[in-house]
Amino acid sequence: MSSNKGKELLAVDESSGSVVVPDQRQQQPRSLSRYESQKKRDWNTFCQYLRNQNPPLMLSQCNYNHVLEFLRYIDQFGKTKVHLYGCIYFGKPDPPAPCTCPMRQAWGSLDALIGRLRAAYEENGGSMESNPFANSNIRIFLREVKEGQARARGIQYKKKKRKIRDGNKAGEGIRSNRKQSTCSFRYFQNNKTKLQEGLF
C-alpha cells in the first residue's frame, strides 16, 4: 500500500488548463482594514489627479505645490460649512439658520488625508526624503486651514497643557523628603552626642 504522506492532491483549472492546489484555489484574498482601504482609495484618487493634468504628471515629478493644488481641488467637495468673513454667522458655533457660505473640507479630514497619502507614497516606492506630503509647507497650510476654520466656525482649539503642577508637586515632595532626612540625621547626631555626654 503506497503512502500519500508528503503528497498534495492536485486539480486542473478548466478555464486556464493550469494545475493548481485545491487549498490555493479556495483561498480568499485577505480583506483590507478600513484604514488600508481608505488609504488605497486616496492614493488612487491622487494618482488619477496627476494623470488628469495637462500635460499629465508622473509621480516622480510631483512636489509639494502639486499636493497643495490637490488639496484646494478636493476642498470643493467638502461637507463642512465654513462661514465667510462677511457672513452674519461668522464666528458663531451654532448658527440658528442656514446661509449661503460654501461647504469645505474639514481641517481634520485634510489632516488625516495627508497622513494616509504620506504613508502610501513611501509604500509605493517613494523615499522619505523626497516625500512631498511631509513637506513643511503642507504643515503650514494645514495649520492655516485649522485656524481659519476655527475663527469662521467659532471653535476654540485648546492646547494641551503640560502637567507642570504634578511635576512641581513631585519636586516639592522630593525636597520635603530631603529636609525630613536632614532633620532626622541632625536629631540622631544630637542624641548621640547627648548619650556620649551622659545627658540621657
UniProtKB/TrEMBL annotation:
Q: What UniProt keywords apply to this chain's record, in alphabetical order?
A: Developmental protein, DNA-binding, Nucleus, Transcription, Transcription regulation
Q: Which Pfam families match?
A: ALOG_dom (PF04852)
Q: Where in the cell is it found?
A: Nucleus
Similarity comment? Belongs to the plant homeotic and developmental regulators ALOG protein family.
Q: Which GO terms describe its molecular function?
A: DNA binding
Region: Disordered, residue numbers = 1-37
- Asked if Disulfide bond is a keyword of the record, the answer is no
Ranges for domain ALOG come to 34-161
Q: What is this protein called?
A: ALOG domain-containing protein
- This protein's source sits in the domain of life called Eukaryota
UniProt GO BP: mRNA transcription; response to light stimulus
Biased composition of type Basic and acidic residues is found at 1-10
PROSITE patterns noted in UniProt: ALOG
InterPro entries on file: ALOG, ALOG_dom
Cellular component GO terms, alphabetically? nucleus
Comp. bias (Low complexity)? 19-30
Give the main localization category: nucleus
